[in-house]
Amino acid sequence: MRPLPGSSLLVSRLGLGTVKFGRNEQVKYPEPFDLPSDGEILHLLETARECGINLLDTAPAYGSSEERLGKLLGSRRDDWVISTKAGEDFEGGRSSFDFRGTAIRNSVERSLQRLRTDRVEIVMLHSDGNDVGILQATDAVATLCELRDEGKICSVGISTKTVEGGCLAFEMGLDLVMATYNAWHTEELPVLDAAMAAGKAVLIKKAFSSGWFGDLPGMPTTLPQEMNPVEHSLRTVFAHPASLAVIVGTLQESHLRANAAVVAKVLTTG
What we know:
alpha/beta, two-stranded antiparallel ribbon, 12 strands, globular, eight-stranded parallel barrel, 270 residues
């Protein structure tokens, strides 16, 4: 566990991504998949808790993910640190973006209703790629800060797609950035450095390149000390002190347990 910037909460170093709980259209995973049943989700959530995971990552753009979590967490909602997003919706097989303050507020209020909760621990802007424009030319950040002042959000941030946007977010005082970083994609290292300099943190997305390890250009044919790609990438990620947690989405109990075991190994052996 490590402290969540902007709050008094502790979060697990591995978070469970839940896009696969509610959306299987227009996704970039190697294999197609069916949405899980409620029972399968409950079993996976219980497995996550057994593995010491308390961080769940969702978003309005993840189809029915928020609604299903709200229904299934029930009385155990307080066992979890929930991260959701605002600015992107997914309907009719297409994404749409709106970063006006009114849209951000409406999105957060709707997320609270779907999640059946009175607050969300983390809300991040779900960037369309124009990170700098969202941060500088809209009132999205100001609206998130208002919602934080109202007690509906604990920590605010942005899920970015550019180095410039990630660094600017910390200059503007945001608590968190979600950035892509792994052993084969280190271009966003300056974002992690900026987080460390600001005393903030980064949530890591696509640490396993969404499952495309074997097709990545430049991937070595042999890995250090006969590591598998998961361990190699996690060692790269957690070598940087600004890496708060890695968000990994899976529907397989075996994958979840294996990932948790590797995180524990990496964090205990350095």
